Amino acid sequence: MRIVITGGQGFLGQELCKLLLKNGAAKDSSGTARSIEGVTLFDVAAPRDPSAGVNGDPKVTCVSGDITDLAVCKGLVEGSGPLSIIHLAGVMSGQAEKDFDVGLQVNLYGTINMLEACRAWGKKPKFLFASSMAVFGETYDKDAPISDTNKIVPKNTYGMTKACGELMVNDYSRKGFIDGRTARLPTVVVRPGAPNAASTSCYSGVVREPLHGVDVELPVARNLPHAVSTTRALLTNLVILHDCTWPEGLVDRGATLPSIPATLQDLIDALYAAVPEEERSRLGKITDKEDKFLSGVVGSMSANMSSERGVSLGMVKVPDLTTAVLEFLEDFGDKVVVTRPNKKQRVS
């Protein structure tokens, strides 16, 4: 089985590729488990070091190009044998809100190009589309959890493009062009690496930077809740969604991945709970410098989510925030300024 991951040089693309190669197999559109023969990691820019990490795996091919070019997208799909497309590519929420044209070109037309490439190929590949909880903006019952059956009324450009993508995945699946899945992703905490252009980047930065001894200013109000998941839970649930047999007769191909609501203050509390008291003085300082624009974007996204469909498909729950911090230390904490826990000794 061939797998193509768009946005393959991003954090999720790299980590998902690692997990798929570790698993060694994935299910095709007929539900048959197939060994993974190769993974193509597609992104707008070539990797700085094609031999580093998962990019250097003999089963991995790195390809760079413009997703707004239909010919490029068709080239990714061409070939023989079972195929799965995992479409993660897109510009982040903050950038899409500030630059409408870029958000539209990459997130909407780029998705259309990938779907059209699959339709032209004509062999019904599996297609996993990364959407967002930003599709749920305006809600009519402020106190009730948002479910998979709630009307999608996004309140930012990023959410609008993802909502359009969801509807297209539904219809391309209904027409038999693809075997589609839509994953409504929560924000990953704690995400390693440098801050990105997402308006929710600070939900990782509030933990990540202090753990590296770096001071951090919070651009979003501390009391704004946001739906989050750990890296491990999110990756596990993406694979479960990819491999599951979709409920017969259900036109809606979307599933909201499990999440928990978290404020920046909740994450600060979890950070201090995870770090021994005698080591907390090593942490970078946390101060507030609210950006009303970013707070507005984050505040336009619902945080109280339910995930009944995902759970019915076998998805795992998200652990508490202190566990999220400990998992980050275990998996990505090679340069932190505090003692790194040994995951073999900790009971999850």
**What structural category do the secondary elements indicate?**
alpha/beta
- CATH 4th-level superfamily of the domain at 2-188 and 228-256: NAD(P)-binding Rossmann-like Domain
Question: Any idea what the radius of gyration is?
Answer: 20 Å
As laid out across the biggest beta sheet, the strand order is 5-4-1-6-7-8-12
- Going by CATH, the architecture of the domain at 2-188 and 228-256 would be 3-Layer(aba) Sandwich
Q: How many helices in DSSP terms? A: 11
Give the DSSP E fraction (strand runs of 2 or more residues). 15-25%
Strand count:
14
Q: Which overall shape is indicated by the principal axes computed on the Cα atoms?
A: globular
Could you tell me the CATH topology label of the domain at 2-188 and 228-256. Answer: Rossmann fold
The N- to C-terminal Cα distance equals: 33 Å
Largest sheet: 7 strands, parallel
> Which percent range fits the helix content?
25-40%
> Whole-number average pLDDT?
93
What is the CATH first-level class name of the domain at 2-188 and 228-256?
A: Alpha Beta
Unreliably modeled segments: none
Order of helices and strands: EHEEEEHEHHEHEEHEEHEEHEHHH
